Amino acid sequence: HELNPPRGYVSSANQQTSPASYPFYHGWNFANPARISTINKTLDESKKFTSGDMKQLQMNNHSFWAETHLMRMIDSVMVYISRFPDSVRTATLHGAIDSLRVWDLKNTATSINATIFDQWQRAITTRLWESLMEPIKDFRPLRPPTDISYRVLFHEKPAETYKQLFGELPNTAALLFITLQETIQKLENEYGPPGEKWFWWRFNGSTINHLLNIKALNQPRLMNSGHADSPNAIRNNHAPSWRMVVELSSPPRAWGVYPGGQSGNPANKGYNAFIDDWARGHYYSLTIYKTWEEAKAGPQNQTVILKPAY
Predict the structure, then answer these.
(1) Long-range contacts of 214-217 (CB under 8 A, 24+ apart)
(2) How many Cα neighbours within 13 Å face the side chain of 162?
(3) Between helices 64-83 and 172-191, what is the axis angle to 10°?
């Protein structure tokens, strides 16, 4: 818990909330610090925020890991290429490096750089930990979180533990070059040269399926921006399903949206009425009642009574 912290706000994005000195066990599978770092950085920039600012923060698509590590990743790759120029197998690799250098670090729906960086990051963590990921009977080990992978990659704590497990530290420049080259080749082999088929939404756009997974009632993949490590935490069939912003004025005001509709009938126009607005970050003004009686008598009130047939 926190009470009136000096920074002026309390924030959470499923990250570990206790310091290393906390003496009691309270779970272990927390989100990595990417989302909360972006949120806190934004909140530290000002003491005044409007409801519009908070909506914008919820739709933030920033790539924290690219901001933190991309330039030194590219530098390491270029060091390797300077030593072994004949190891480059495709001209697309140089184009990808040049493009990543000027990337705006946003996971936008039509970004090719977002796709390359995400796939590269996946390849890096796989190569770092793959020998520990073999199933043991019915148990499949979980890969360490992204921040641990980057620390090990650049020989920072807890790299000494990695060395104990594997006998040596990773060869950073070689690993980064090999995984980037593999990423580009894989994308080219599966989707052709860089173009629309490399757009980020094709890899990470929301898929909203019917609860019974009836294919005809599923929503086609949305052209979403976002990333699991961005405040707009889109990742295929997982996402911030209920977005809400509350202004603690007097009286309070609130806005919200969810990716669905107000009818379970697929023939009803309300079946998927809010999905496009949710994807765009368009919020609806919410009606706030002071009491249950006021809500019950409200003009928008409807009551549905379900009675069993037996």
Answers:
(1) 217/266
(2) 23
(3) 100
pLDDT band at 19 (very low <50, low <70, confident <90, very high): confident
C-alpha to C-alpha distance for 38 and 301, rounded to whole angstroms: 39
- Output the six-digit token pair for 223: 């052209």
Angle between helices 64-83 and 146-153 (to 10 degrees): 30
Q: Are 188 and 195 in contact (CB under 8 A)?
A: no
Closest CA to 112 of 123, 102, 126: 102
Residue tagged 């919200």 (tokens): 256
- pLDDT score of 297: 82
Asked if residue 300 has pLDDT above 70, the reply is no
- The token pair at 233 is 């935490």
Query: Under the phi-then-psi rule, with left for phi > 0, alpha for psi from -120 to 50, and beta for the rest, what region is 214?
Result: beta
- Maximum Cα–Cα distance across the chain: 79
Contact 31, 13 (CB under 8 A): yes
* pLDDT higher than threshold 80 for residue 259: yes
Task: Please tell me the predicted confidence (pLDDT) of residue 133.
Answer: 82
- Closest by alpha carbon to 252, among 300, 288, 207, 214? 288
Phi-psi region of 5 (alpha: psi -120 to 50; beta: other; left: phi over 0): beta
Beta bridge partners of 15: 31
Q: Coil, strand or helix: which one is 157?
A: coil
Query: 298: pLDDT confidence band, cut at 50, 70 and 90?
Result: confident
Report the residue count for the chain: 310
Tokens found for residue 190: 């599966």
Burial of 93 (0-12, 13-18, 19+ CB in 10 A): buried
pLDDT of 84-132, one tens digit each?
Answer: 999 998 889 999 999 999 999 999 999 999 999 999 999 999 999 998 8
